[in-house]
């Protein structure tokens, strides 16, 4: 028997349907009222139904959310932000299980049921941050499934001992290890990437590399990453996060980079930042390069911005890339949902039988309307259980 049926919803704005959930899976999607309801029933009241949102790039270990306001300080550069965070985080109790749980609860309230979180691994913290994030996720009973990237925020080669910590994290179950501006931070792109790929290949994990370096310097590092991905046989397991350079190089150079990225099976994660060049969105879609959307840090020592709502990030992506038609606006929401499953280890993530029963209901006329208004999430179901209602977390 079905454990839960959500009746009379409109999946992706289509015709009214009943979603039948068995345990943590969707077992059937059928026309509304076409069969008797067995087990528990929730009236969907004609609301728009979307899959749970996927946050493809988060830092849930860094936030001061829930504490008194922390004013922005330090120098506004990558190096400056790193130094400021290292100097101030301990006084704020960052990281902690309580603060990480607060962030995950904000995710859940806004309908995010899966996230890839970069978690700082450095000589001061060791692997403590990873255990903290795992504990925070466990407190919510797995309502938000979290894939962990062991992230060397302070650099790799320039901090002896970090490579050993990344290797240890991979051995201990981190699904990916990270990197950071191989040229701009470590000033040795070949050295950093060779060592990161060696760990990934040996441990059988993926890579997710922050790449802020712009222009030709960033483009050169894209090439290095693509070459090593193919050489190591890691197609489909490597992500470049941020990757601003892709939108900053001339068209011919850009097209060649896109071909190499697609050939290497590299995915991209973006937070759609203001004042940055748009990604070549149409060309990425044509080459079927996976693109995921992320919140990045939320109210942390890098920036006071962020509220945990990935639908607002999809809105920012749409504005940055000049999306206007219904098809384009719907595609932006798809990047935050069904097109993002691979970022959290899911072969398929949608409102179809066999997928994890992650469902978000909103009062919206259609998908573009939901994107532009970002209404309160009327109901959030994660893994087959109701976890939030009318913007309030119930777990």
TrEMBL record:
<dbReference type="Pfam" id="PF07969">
    <property type="entry name" value="Amidohydro_3"/>
</dbReference>
<dbReference type="GO" id="GO:0016814">
    <property type="term" value="F:hydrolase activity, acting on carbon-nitrogen (but not peptide) bonds, in cyclic amidines"/>
</dbReference>
<feature type="domain" description="Amidohydrolase 3">
    <location>
        <begin position="101"/>
        <end position="387"/>
    </location>
</feature>
<dbReference type="InterPro" id="IPR032466">
    <property type="entry name" value="Metal_Hydrolase"/>
</dbReference>
<dbReference type="InterPro" id="IPR052349">
    <property type="entry name" value="Metallo-hydrolase_Enzymes"/>
</dbReference>
<dbReference type="InterPro" id="IPR011059">
    <property type="entry name" value="Metal-dep_hydrolase_composite"/>
</dbReference>
<dbReference type="InterPro" id="IPR013108">
    <property type="entry name" value="Amidohydro_3"/>
</dbReference>
<protein>
    <submittedName>
        <fullName>Cytosine deaminase</fullName>
    </submittedName>
</protein>
